[in-house]
From TrEMBL:
Belongs to the transferase hexapeptide repeat family. PANTHER family: SUGAR-1-PHOSPHATE GUANYL TRANSFERASE (PTHR22572). Pfam families: GMPPB_C (PF25087), NTP_transferase (PF00483). One of its GO terms (molecular function) is nucleotidyltransferase activity. SUPFAM superfamilies: Nucleotide-diphospho-sugar transferases (SSF53448). This is Uncharacterized protein. It comes from Trapa incisa. The lineage of its organism: Eukaryota, Viridiplantae, Streptophyta, Embryophyta, Tracheophyta. InterPro entries: GMPPB_C, Mannose-1P_guanyltransferase, NTP_transferase_dom, Nucleotide-diphossugar_trans. Residues 305-420 form the Mannose-1-phosphate guanyltransferase C-terminal domain.
Length: 423
């Protein structure tokens, strides 16, 4: 079964963005009950839109695919809108069940290969970075291998939270890969962004055949890396992981290479990290989309704007409010007199009444904060309640204080809370 594109004089590139599904990301549940996580706004744009916009910079891009197991209807309006805006086809492909990061690619291989692309980008939606995709594909051509992985150096203490790898310091060849090791291997980690030749589909096909053949065998031959990973994980026959099932066995075989980014990189696993990543994207707008930033003399009316702030054109901000840094205000928000906002995301149709204060928090759709309320987190984006979160339709009555807490949708708070989860 051959998947290699026929040689042509012009390259053609497709991008595949893995968006997951509703059974994943339970730590994101407090703000994803109303909207799929990939459509949750960071710096005023849906999470998935940041990698999509980055794909625009790839030369010879022909299509963008979103693969996940959310209901197709959740993405219909979005993909139609973004396709029209970019003038590049964006399609959502719904899996019948989770197939894994490599399995989803293989499941939709015929659609992905319908334009005979010469290169396939694979990106994870819950990654926040500057997406140096043109630089990656340039490096990939120089290396001449089957695939190139975006990597970044992190602290020794946090490295074991990710896939650690060892690369040749001269050739950048991937020599060793291990996913979340118990002991330290390297401070170089996998960023979850790849570019491959279509040969990757041939590799997954061979793995599929191998898994089919070995499915009913209790004992597998020693030294068989593919078989070993299957036996240990007891995986379904059609579930393939890009990291453990592909990267680990092919490391050191002159097929995979690395491209290191020196820029920011984060994983968006919790609502608190979405606040951190929103701030990173707001800062990046200075280089990529300065028109989206607000200043005191434009979209923020005459309000005081401090640092990086996004304000939707439909929002109403009182001139005496003070906004920023690191604030994103969505559509139809009403910000009253004397309001102070710092390091927060304010979602659609929120009302912030006079002298309300919001710090290190996410305020859900259609919520209302009364006069002199204070909603605040301690700023630890990785802790469970370090970011205060109000779900959709929450009302905080006058002079109530909410600190380091999570409030699920449609609650009315007429008393102050701290370090609590209001169900």
């Amino acid at each position: 079964m051959g998947f290699l594109a026929m040689e042509t004089s012009a390259e053609k590139v497709v991008a595949v963005i893995m968006v997951g599904g509703p059974t994943k990301g339970t730590s994101f549940r407090s703000v994803s009950l109303q909207t799929p996580k990939p459509l949750f706004p960071l710096a005023g744009q849906p999470m998935v839109q940041h990698p999509i916009y980055a794909c625009r910079r790839i030369p010879n891009l022909s299509q963008i695919f979103l693969i996940g197991f959310y209901d197709e209807g959740d993405f219909t309006l979005y993909v139609s809108s973004i396709s029209n805006e970019l003038k590049v086809p964006v399609r959502y492909l719904q899996e019948d069940k989770p197939h894994g990061s490599a399995g989803g690619l293989y499941y939709f291989r015929n659609l992905i290969m319908e334009d005979s692309p010469t290169h396939i980008f694979i990106l994870n939606c819950d990654v926040c970075c500057s997406f140096p995709l043109p630089e990656m594909i340039d490096a990939h051509r120089r290396y001449g291998g089957m695939g190139t992985i975006l990597v970044v150096k992190v602290s020794t203490e946090s490295a074991n939270e990710f896939g650690e790898l060892v690369a040749d310091p001269i050739s950048n060849e991937l020599l060793h890969y291990t996913e979340k090791p118990e002991t330290f291997v390297s401070d170089l980690i996998n960023c979850g962004i790849y570019v491959f030749t279509p040969e990757i589909l041939t590799v997954i096909h061979k793995l599929s055949i191998h898994r089919e053949e070995k499915a009913n065998m209790a004992n597998l031959p020693s030294g068989d890396a593919f078989g070993y990973s299957i036996r240990r994980a007891n995986l379904p026959k059609d579930f393939f992981r890009l990291d453990q099932d592909i990267l680990s066995p092919l490391a050191g075989k002159k097929q995979l290479y690395t491209y290191e980014t020196m820029d920011f990189w984060e994983q968006i696993k919790t609502p608190g990290m979405s606040l951190r990543c929103s701030a990173l994207y707001l800062s990046q707008y200075h280089q990529t989309s300065p028109h989206l930033l607000s200043y005191g003399d434009n979209k923020g009316a005459s309000a005081t704007i401090v640092g990086d702030v996004y304000i939707h054109p439909s929002a109403k901000v009182h001139p005496t409010a003070k906004i920023g840094p690191n604030v994103s205000i969505a559509a139809n928000v009403r910000v009253g007199a004397g309001v102070r906002l710092l390091d927060c995301i304010i979602l659609d149709n929120v009302e912030l009444q006079e002298n309300a204060v919001v710090i290190c928090s996410i305020i859900g759709w259609k919520s209302c904060l009364g006069q002199w309320t204070r909603v605040q987190g301690d700023g630890d984006h990785k802790s469970k309640c370090g970011t205060t979160i109000l779900g959709e339709g929450v009302t905080v009555e006058d002079e109530v204080v909410v600190v380091n807490s999570i409030v699920l949708p449609h609650k009315i708070l007429n008393y102050s809370v701290q370090d609590d989860i209001i169900l």
